[in-house]
Structures are given as structure tokens and as C-alpha cells.
Specification:
By secondary structure, the first copy, chain A, is α/β, with parallel strands linked by helices. Helix content of chain A is 41%, strand content 25%. Chain A is elongated.
């Protein structure tokens, strides 16, 4: 079945608000195995809204509209939909009562315009809204389903989750399942060329790549008559991806972020971490602290943007700063080792770089970054060259730091396992 | 002139990402005085993308498309647009050189699929992309303008700001000027009720409010026959806003962010700053370090997520942690004072709170945050209650911290000026 999402509201067209409802609805519909080929945003305008619905009716089975159900004159989604689909608006006594109760509870009198929200298209399924006064509505007309939802996300989401989702689930006949494979340390075009042969022959399951900052997510989606069959289709494809990308895959779990995978790795190996950042100014620490419960592994973070702070806080040597300058492999190394001494953390990450827009030289251009990672005293420093704005360079640096952290911890343990471990650098 | 915004990407249709590009482009187009009646999202599918462009071409003068310019097989926006508007794709040597340089700088070889990005529609204006490999493109065909931009916001925004905005500005026949008034420390609905009378009678200039995390931007836009006349229309409205919001307005400059205004305030008063963060884990420091040249004022930042780190790094007393718990006004105070002693900064900010999703109690619920700010030894601590996810609570906290920083510095100097200053708390 095909669904189309229509968001109604001049405030979206003017860019006053970001259309998070469409993303929410799209994700839910995808999880239901509904195909969605278009999302449209249209203003509170009868003519244009009618045109939009006509078009959507011609290419989809289910129309989900959000917004424009409120009490004001601008709100005309329900009126327009009822007119197009040939339904009269009738009084709904149940909704009238709920509106009355809603206002009473807040010690307010119902203003006249609010009664408009108790008019519903004849024959519509009325979805009680516990978080506002406009109910959700479902019309079934000539094999088409039209679902109207209020615009505020705090009303739309509970209505969808509690009422629309089960309604749609009962309607769908096939099962769609998908699995994500999250890759770090390999660029999007490299990922693409490494799986071009797989993409070329894909049909069911399908394979799609999604570029995130510094990461690539590959989504494998299968359609089948049962969940078991769908998962059976997905499995060999995911295994092949694992085979090709090995340790660059940090998770195949939808919910797990890169920072979560780092924290999990530290937890699993009973390691603590501290960070020391210059150009990222706390972003690496902040990213790790996205993970609830990180306090078990995170010891302390330091932001030493100036040279003076690097010396004073961390004991980076004046002579090193002078000889190599602050953005150098040597300073990254001393930072990683300094924070290790200072906090006794098992693992430390250090970052120093030139985020720009100024401060670059021919020899040390904007975008040059050194990241150091020390695992139980073994320090590795990598040099990077990033492009873009100050913010983009810093964001790329954060992902590179987490990727290096994973790599160093994994290397450390694999070398220990193979007996060439601890003494190698001593 | 009428513009239509088309976002291309299966990841938007699947709800994998929120369409922030459309909101950004919509706001910018509104500021340019362009009318926008529809936004559409369509997948990476030639047939449907063609249909969407045909429809848009019939109802708008300018089409802005984002996404689908990358190197992968999925990316077909440029190819589809060129075909529909009858333009051949030709090699652009300049872009080839840029791609080569982009990869060389990173010490990488250009993979074959990347060369696709150096093909451009014949006669198109090529917009160099400093943050990626796909250039922006403008085609002018039969009175219609088709603008193609890469999907990653870090590439799209600088391209639009630097190249598309001036291009569109030159195209419009009337003069539209707008000025933003950026407000912190006042909620959106409060801002709206404080200027409801102004909004009710608005016509030219128009007044629109934009809610950002923890901030509200009010945009005043005037249309006139000359720039001088437009600015003359804007001025009294902005003055009235200044009159109503006073020091809650941190800037009326488009380019200035909240963190920039904080850094400017510190620079102007020759003050240095250090930070100490628990639940925000470095986000406050990272936000300040967004500002180039911040090293003149930023001394050091500490991330002490655990109680142990709060004690060890900053000297918060064990007894205080025990008596008041880590999330308390007293601990925020000791943190602000501790970092002040430790780093000798003139101003310090401290943050401690419960970002969730776990760790809340009836007495100290998720979302409870204390922020301390010390200016030359005078410490103020504020209590906040934020709603939403762990990330949303942390983001709200960062803005509240910067808002408090401004307020405390301004208060300090206004009291000194009026002679009730330094001794008040001693």
C-alpha cells in the first residue's frame, strides 16, 4: 500500500518551524511496510490544499494530513478534506463533551471558535485526543483512507502511536523488515564502490547507503510473507557486509550510536577514559556523555584551547610547544600522555588542530588535525586533513576521534591475544 | 516571484533524517520576499523526480532542489533536471581540478564514481563548494531558474548564503530588506504575547517569530522601492522591539550567534572565562569555542561528570556532595567557585543537572538543572526545569548557561556603574 504525507501550515512554508512531523510519520509508515513516494507541505489555503489532496489521491491509497485542525479561521484542513471527499460536517456530541471537559479542567470557559473542533465528517472514525481539543479523524472513501491529525507534535505523536498505528497495521498484508549496518572509518564513495556488485543485483532485499558525518549507514530491507522469511532474506546480505567491512562496522543495532559503541567497548573491557581537547573544545567529551550511564567509564575531560592551558593544565612542555607548535603530532602525544598521568584513565584521547577560519599556514593549513589515543600507556597519533567550515572540521574531528578510539582499543586487545602485546612499545 | 522547494532523498521519505534544509531554504526565501506555496520531498527516482519538477515548473518561477548530487548511483538529481530542461551534461575542467585537489589534500586517490560530480549541465552557473565535492548549479531555461544544491546542510548552507542568496537578491525586482532581532531568556509564547498588538496590525513591515532552542528570533521585513525606504520602514519597529525586550536582545546582527555575543561581551570588558560541566559534558565549552579567536578569553574547560571528578579536579567538598547531592545549587556554586580558584578566570560557568533518561527522583526529577555563574567572585546560581529527551535537556541547558553568563556580566557592570557594586556581596 502507498501512503502520502501532507503537512499543512504556512509556518512550515515560511521556515518558522522544522517539519519534524513528516519525519516522524515517514519513519512509522516505513516500519509498517507502507511505501511513501512523496511528502508535501502546503499552506492553509483551500484551493492549494484541494489540489494537493487531488494529486495525492491519484497516486496513493492512504493520505495522512497533519495540521490545520485548530479552532481558528486559518484552520481549514478538515473542511477542505470533507468537501473534496463528499462528506458533510456533522456535530459530534462526544467530542463536544470532551472539549467542554478539557476547558473545565483548566478552569476556563469554552470560547465560541472552539466548537468548530466538534464538527466531524459524516461517518468518520473519531480519534480522541488526550493532549488537545482537536480530535484525529479517519475517513474511508472509495478505497481511499484519509487520516487527519492535529499539528502539534505533542498531540500528533500519541494519537498516531496509540490509534493510527494499530489501525494501519491491521490494513497491511505484507511484512517488511530492515536492518542497518553502521560503518565508521570508510568514506561514502569507498563504501559504495566496495559494495557496488551487491547493489547492482539488489532486488529483495534492497540495499541503500546513508552518509552521516564521518559514518556510512547501509540499510538492508526485505519484503516477505512472514517476519521469519524477511529476516532470512536479510541475514546473508548482512553477513556479506560484515565480511567486507569487518571491524569498521561498529554496530548492526538500529539504536546504537558510534559513541554508544565506544562506551560499550570500554565497559566490556573495564576501561576508563579521559579526554583532552583543543580545537573541538569539549565536543568529544560531550559526544561520549550523550550516552546515559557513561559515568562508569568517563573520568574527566579537559578543554585547553590556549597554549598556556595546555602547559598549565596538562603539563605539555613549553619546549615542545615551541619546537613543534601546538598543532603537531608531538603535542597530541604529550596531551594524551599528560591526561593519562593526570587522571589515571586507562584510555585517553587528545585533539589538537586548526579549525579555522584563520590561523592556517602553508605548512599547517586550516583543517590539519592531530588526534592522539593512549591505551594503557601505548600511544598512537594520527594526522588528518579535513575540509569545510570551522564547525564541519570540528564535527569530522569528533567522529575521527571516536573511530580512532575504537581502533586503538581493538588493536590493543588483539595484539595482547596474539602475544605480541604490551612489550611492543616499551 | 514564486519559488518552490524540492528536497530529494529516499532517506527523508523513510524518515531517517529530518528535513532541516527545507526549513532553512524557506526562511531564506521568505527573507528575500519570494513567495513559497509548496515544498515537496521526493525520492531518488527519475520518474517521480521528473513529475515533481514538471509540476513545480508549472506553478513557480524558481525551483530550488537539494540532495542527490553526490557520487553514488542513487544520486540522479542533476541528470534528471538536465534531461527535463534539455541540457546536455558536459565535463567541467574547473570542478575536476577541485575534486582532484579535494582528494589530494586528504592524501586519497579519487575513486572513479567521484568524477561524475564534475559533469555539469551545459551553460549552467557552477557554484564552487568549499565543503564537499559536488558543486551547486544554477540553470536558467525559458524564464525558469533551477537551482541545484548538495544535501548535507554543512555544504548547502554556505553555498546558499554565499552564492545563491546574492544571485536571487539580484533577480528580485522589488527591494526587500529584513532585520532580525535575536532574543534570549524569554520563551516563544511570552514573546508572542508581548508583541501581539504589533503583529495584529503588521502589514509592511511584517513581523515573524522563529523559535530556536532557547532563543526566539523576530524578523522584521519591509518591502519598498529603495533600500533606504525599506530600512526607514524597519527602523521604528526594531526600536519598539528594543524598547520592549531591552537586554534580552543579544543582537540585531544576522551573523552574530549567542556564543559570539557572549565572547564579544567578555572581550569588551577584558574578562576571561573558564567552564565546568557535568551533564552538558563539554557542550558549553564547545559552543563558546565555535567562535574563532575565542582563545583570547577562554582559559580552560573541565568536564567532571562523576562525583569523584568533581571532588578531585575541582575541589568540590565530599560533605557538600553528600549533604546536597551532586545536582544542587550548593554544588553548582562550589563548582563555579572551584574553577575560578583553579584557573583564575574572571568569569566561570558551572553546570550540574539530571539529563535523564534515568537518574530522576520525585524530589529531583529528570530535567532539573543548576547553573552557576561567577563574575569576579560574585556567584549567582539559578535553578531550571527542562523538558524532553536527554539531548534536548542538554541543549536547553547550554543556551540557558550562555544567557545567564550575559545577564551576570551585564548586571555586574551596571551595579558597579551605579556605585553599589563590588562590596555588595562581601
Amino acid at each position: 500500500m502507498i501512503v502520502e504525507i501532507i503537512s499543512v501550515g504556512t509556518e512550515i512554508l515560511l521556515g518558522n518551524i522544522v517539519n519534524t512531523n513528516a519525519a516522524y510519520l515517514a519513519e512509522k509508515c516505513a516500519a509498517l511496510g507502507l511505501s511513501c513516494y512523496y511528502q508535501t507541505v502546503v499552506g492553509d489555503n483551500e484551493k492549494r490544499l484541494t489540489e494537493t489532496m487531488k494529486l495525492a489521491r491519484g497516486r496513493a491509497d492512504i493520505l495522512i494530513l497533519s495540521g490545520g485542525l485548530g479552532p481558528t479561521q486559518d484552520d481549514l484542513t478538515k473542511e477542505t478534506a470533507a468537501k473534496l471527499f463528499g462528506r458533510k460536517l456533522v456535530r459530534d456530541p462526544h467530542t463536544r463533551e470532551r472539549i467542554q471537559a478539557y476547558f473545565k479542567k483548566r478552569g476556563k470557559r469554552v470560547t465560541d471558535n472552539n466548537w468548530k473542533q466538534a464538527l466531524v465528517p459524516e461517518g468518520a472514525i473519531v480519534l480522541d485526543n488526550d493532549n488537545g481539543t482537536a480530535p484525529g479523524l479517519i475517513m474511508e472513501v472509495n478505497q481511499k483512507t484519509i487520516i487527519l491529525l492535529p499539528g502539534p507534535p505533542g498531540e500528533l505523536k500519541p494519537l498516531f502511536e496509540g490509534k493510527v498505528y494499530p489501525y494501519l497495521q491491521a490494513k497491511t498484508d505484507k511484512v517488511i523488515r530492515s536492518q542497518v549496518v553502521k560503518i565508521c572509518g570508510v568514506g561514502e564513495s569507498m563504501v559504495e564502490s566496495m559494495i557496488k556488485d551487491m547493489i547492482d543485483v539488489q532486488k529483495n532485499p534492497t540495499i541503500a547507503t546513508y552518509a552521516k558525518t564521518g559514518e556510512v549507514h547501509v540499510r538492508v530491507t526485505a519484503e516477505a510473507d512472514s517476519e521469519k522469511h524477511a529476516l532470512k532474506l536479510i541475514k546473508p546480505v548482512v553477513n556479506e557486509l560484515k565480511n567486507r567491512f569487518q571491524e569498521n562496522i561498529y554496530t548492526t543495532n538500529e539504536e546504537v550510536t558510534l559513541e554508544q559503541s565506544c562506551v560499550d567497548l570500554l565497559l566490556a573491557n573495564e576501561l576508563t577514559i579521559s579526554t583532552m581537547e583543543s580545537c573541538t573544545g569539549g565536543m568529544v567529551a560531550a559526544r561520549l556523555i550523550n550516552v546515559p550511564g557513561v559515568s562508569e567509564v568517563f573520568k574527566a575531560g579537559y578543554v585547553t584551547y590556549s597554549n598556556k592551558a595546555k602547559r598549565k593544565v596538562l603539563g605539555v612542555k613549553q619546549s615542545t610547544l615551541k619546537k613543534y607548535t601546538a598543532v603537531s603530532a608531538k603535542v597530541a602525544e604529550e596531551m594524551a600522555q599528560g591526561v593519562s598521568l593526570l587522571t589515571k584513565a586507562d584510555v585517553t584521547l587528545s585533539v589538537t588542530g586548526i579549525a579555522g577560519p584563520d590561523g592556517g599556514t602553508e605548512e599547517k593549513p586550516v583543517g590539519l588535525v592531530y588526534i592522539g589515543c593512549s591505551v594503557k600507556g601505548r600511544t598512537k597519533v594520527m594526522e588528518y586533513h579535513f575540509d569545510g567550515s570551522r564547525m564541519k572540521i570540528r564535527e569530522s574531528t569528533v567522529v575521527a576521534a571516536l573511530t580512532l578510539l575504537r581502533q586503538c582499543v581493538l588493536e590493543y586487545f588483539s595484539e595482547i591475544t596474539f602475544g605480541k602485546g604490551k612489550n611492543k612499545k616499551n
